[in-house]
Amino acid sequence: MYNGSRPEPMKHVVVVGGGIAGLATAYALRGKARVTIVEPDVPGGTIRTIREDGFLVEGGPDSFITAKPEGTALCRELGLGDQLIPPSVRKVYVLSRGKLHPLPEGMFLTVPTKIWPMLTSGLISWTGKMRMGMEFFLPRGGGGDESIGAFVRRRFGDEAVAKIAEPLMGGIFVAEADRLSLRATFPRFAEMEEKHRSLIRAMRKIPVTGQSPLLSLRGGMGALVEALLARIDAAIVRAEAKKIEPGYRVVLSDGAVEADAVVVATPPPVTVDLVRAWPELAAAIARVPCETTATVSLGYRAADMPRPLDASGFVIPKAEKRRILACTWCSSKFEGRAPDGSALLRCFFVGSPPDPAGVAREELREILGIVAEPVLTKTYLWPGANPIYEVGHQDRVAEIEARTPVGMVLTGSGYRGIGIPGCIADAKRTADRIVGNG
Ligand SMILES: Cc1cc2nc3c(=O)[nH]c(=O)nc-3n(C[C@H](O)[C@H](O)[C@H](O)COP(=O)(O)OP(=O)(O)OC[C@H]3O[C@@H](n4cnc5c(N)ncnc54)[C@H](O)[C@@H]3O)c2cc1C
Q1: Are 260 and 173 found together in one domain?
Q2: Taking the model in full, what pTM does it have?
């Protein structure tokens, strides 16, 4: 009923950073606030899909996990439901003593859920297998924020850390398992131990849904960015934010924008500099370490591949002392990534060697025996774009939140959710907080 008073004007919210975190926040603010996004580059941040000569290359993320439902839910909401595709293959190899061994089927991260593939696997020694099996009988332990390495070692033994946890986690969280916080990365594992004592036991109680653990989009992850851009109701200012002043005023490379509230969705190393007007906040954000990563995508003629690319790729334990961390066989992992008669592989680096493409080719020659010239080479460098959730991460985030002024919210992969679904989930919470519902 009309009560004679005028509707309150909508808040003007400036979102600094147009990666998935900033775009998903702007999307969640539709109809609730007037939004301006400040982004100097192409929107999408590390989500970067290009098409060239029939290849579909992902410079950053190539998929997202379904265990956190927000990625799938947003794609469906944006009308991309029929574009969602599961990996075409489930097999993953682990490089061990220079040879590729399949990760035993039914392995959920480090937890074996099927006995036979585990017993017949050439990846783990018999002593290692017996030690892993003992997990079923072990009492609860740990407590507090443990590292993933300490947790897996305590439950499954050293070999499970070295050959499974370390290379798998390294590929996802770009840091050694002994640095990573279990509670910030896999809180479910800690909960399983608390509730069921044994993780093997807990996993056997989870109903098999047939849902793929990973999904991508037929047109690549860039399709999500395009769909968001088509649906958000925001002005996009193509400029670099230089600093944020109390009140709020976002100073740009060219001019400034006034805001009632500000969402800072830039990577932590950039945010530290933007919020220097609040030195304690800047110091707290600086305590979240961030790694630089790089990807090199190489397209080949399929006939030049010395072996069948019959898996989604391989991961590499530290003990192998290789210069790449993992290699995705993109054209086997998802449909439509390479033209007929071609193959697409992508090497993943932590840090950035002087000649990433040259190093990637040398590594593929030594590991897979690929000597042919690639028909396509694409290199992407992501400086400081990968936050590391070290042990104690949640305390660091609590401190950041305590020092963030009213009317400002920090979001993105640096704080409460690594990866695309984590960023999307946090964007929703961020929008609620900004308009005062959360
Ligand atoms: C190589 C690689 C592979 C990955 N693979 C996966 C995967 O398979 N699945 C998955 O879920 N996740 C993956 N991730 C992680 C995922 O990409 C990130 O968690 C997520 O995209 C982070 O989004 P974001 O918006 O927080 O940050 P970003 O994507 O980094 O976006 C930040 C934005 O801020 C902008 N910006 C920077 N400085 C300024 C400034 N001064 N003013 C204004 N704007 C600024 C940038 O241009 C950028 O657009 C991967 C990451 C990398 C680097």
Answers
A1: no
A2: 0.94
